[in-house]
Specification:
Blueprint: H1 6-25, E1 29-33, H2 36-46, E2 52-55, H3 59-63, H4 66-73, E3 77-78, H5 87-98, E4 102-105, E5 109-111, E6 116-120, H6 124-130, E7 135-141, E8 145-146, H7 149-168, H8 173-176, E9 192-196, E10 205-210
Parallel strand pairs: 1-10, 2-3, 2-4, 4-7, 5-8, 7-10
Antiparallel strand pairs: 5-6, 6-9
Length: about 220
């Protein structure tokens, strides 16, 4: 990861405030944290002992130390979908996750106008963002910031999907060739494109911008 200079950090903070104002106009709350450690401290200040927590497939959730901090606190109910093995367990896990107190994810891209841009395959992550858990926390490194929705989709197809395909071994063109082919392969990760431009449930979605390069 490239060294983030003081001037870049200052720029991040200024830009973040502009995005935060846009988010607030769209029914979402925005916050800026210079570091991952600051983000963990901020988010934990919102939570209460005994709260239920779940998350989507997010490298940022792990890279920030958020997942480890919540697990080590040993005071939250952690709803980890990977622990469900049988069809019955998976169904009950899904039902529990839908009514979780907190859902954590990242965004594939965030526009300067305060729009979240995401692409998903099974759409577990996006379905929980759109409806269900009481609170949604979007952890977003400043590297995810883009000019507009079109730029966000381009970012996803040139950066997010190839890197995630390599991590998950999807056998899709973006793994095999490193380039999106708008495929309909069995392991396609681009089944649904969702642009969140407004939330009617004011404050449900909290976007935490972090002054670091995080995730894909």
């Amino acid at each position: 990861m490239a060294q983030i200079t003081d001037s870049v950090r200052a720029s991040f903070a200024t830009t973040a405030q502009t995005v935060i104002r846009k988010l607030e106009n769209h029914g979402m709350q925005g916050y800026y944290c210079p570091t991952s450690a600051d983000a963990v401290e901020l988010v934990r200040s919102w939570m209460s002992e005994g709260d239920s927590v779940t998350w989507g497939g997010s490298e940022t959730f792990k890279e920030t130390g958020m997942k480890a901090a919540l697990e080590s606190a040993n005071c939250y109910t952690m709803l980890d979908r990977s622990r469900a093995a049988t069809p019955d367990e998976k169904r009950h896990m899904w039902l529990d996750r839908n009514v979780a107190d907190w859902f954590f994810m990242s965004a594939n891209a965030l526009t300067v106008n305060g729009e979240l841009v995401n692409i998903d395959g099974n759409s577990d992550r996006l379905s929980l963002m759109l409806h269900g858990p009481e609170h949604v926390v979007v952890l977003c490194g400043m590297n995810k910031l883009v000019a507009d929705v079109e730029s966000g989709i381009k970012r996803i197809r040139t950066i997010s999907c190839p890197r995630n395909a390599s991590r998950l071994h999807t056998a899709t063109p973006c793994e095999v060739n490193g380039v999106c082919a708008s495929c309909h392969a069995p392991g396609c990760m681009c089944c649904n494109v969702v642009v969140t431009r407004h939330s009617r449930h004011e404050g449900r979605i909290r976007v935490v911008l972090i002054g670091e390069e995080l995730g894909y």
